[in-house]
Design brief:
Largest sheet: 6 strands, mixed
Strand order of the largest sheet: 6-9-10-3-11-12
Bound molecules: 2'-deoxycytidine-5'-triphosphate, magnesium ion
CATH architecture of the domain at 7-91 and 162-240: 3-Layer(aba) Sandwich
Structural class: alpha/beta
Oligomer: single chain
Order of helices and strands: EEEHEEHEEHHHEHEHEEEHH
Radius of gyration: 18 Å
Helix content: 25-40%
Length: 241
């Protein structure tokens, strides 16, 4: 199986409750390796789009495809293999740092795990922990800072070989050094993968191939950063506001 990671959404409509659509007629196409960013007010439907791509819920209408194949046709297992996730809430378990990063790639040698941590910019802080990579994390990484947990999530995704990456950027109020580390880690991660990124800091998505502006479940504007600024619409408002 050689998945390229092209993503298509055609006229997707969905809601969590009957007769209450949250996404309405969403259509988009991401070529292999492209970075698509989603912006818009809270509750606009950004996370819902990624929930549907991951098949956490079933759509009401329309179709979502990877490499042209409806995601309902292949099993969830293949979907999980093809999509790496960096979500707002971290999913760390009680175990060592090494085990937490290796999660999902049990075949990975220690060296590979460390290389992924380096890619994610997590290696330096891990080495400063009491027992380095053998440090045991409390449930959900309670003994780490928010930024450190995020870096571990990024390391885990860096270890994954999935051609598609979904990132729901944390709104976190981490310090600027950690923020820069997170940004560098995410940039390294996106390289060569088709990426859906939900951005809370618009500065981080200026270089996207396409920015989608969502409002009340619809894409109201789409284009590159430059195009959307020229348009002086909603994105311009969000960016300059
Ligand atoms: N919603 C719901 N049930 C859920 C999740 C969301 O009813 N399990 C509703 C809340 C919003 C709408 O769906 O009205 C869209 O929610 P999203 O989480 O997709 O919104 P965003 O991700 O755009 O918002 P935020 O920026 O706050 O993360
Ligand atoms: Mg969200």
């Amino acid at each position: 199986e050689n998945v390229q990671g092209e993503i298509g959404m055609e006229h997707v409509t969905f809601g969590y409750l009957e007769n209450q659509p949250v996404l309405k007629d969403i259509s988009l196409h991401a070529k292999k390796g492209q970075k698509i960013a989603f912006v818009g007010s809270t509750g606009a439907g950004k996370t819902t789009i990624t929930n549907l791509l991951n098949r956490f819920y079933e759509i009401w209408e329309g179709k979502i495809t990877i490499d042209g194949v409806d995601i309902r046709e292949n099993g969830l297992e293949s979907l999980r293999e093809n999509i790496a996730l960096v979500l707002q809430d971290t999913h760390l378990f009680t175990g060592t740092v090494m085990e937490n990063i290796r999660y999902g790639r049990l075949d990975a040698a220690d060296e590979e795990v460390i290389a992924a941590a380096k890619t994610a910019n997590a290696d330096a802080f891990i080495r400063r922990l009491q027992n380095g990579y053998d440090t045991v994390l409390e449930g959900d990484g309670a003994n780490l800072s928010q930024g450190q947990r995020q870096l571990l999530n990024i390391a885990r995704a860096a270890l994954s070989k999935a051609p598609v990456l979904v990132m729901d950027e944390a709104t976190s109020s981490v310090d600027t050094i950690t923020e820069r580390q997170i940004q560098e880690g995410m940039d390294a991660l996106m390289k060569d993968r088709t990426t859906f990124v939900i951005a809370h800091r618009l500065s981080t998505i200026r270089n996207s191939d396409m920015i989608m502006v969502l409002e009340h479940g619809r894409i109201i504007e789409r284009g590159t950063h430059t195009e959307l600024l020229q348009r002086q619409g909603r994105y311009y408002e969000l960016y300059t506001g």
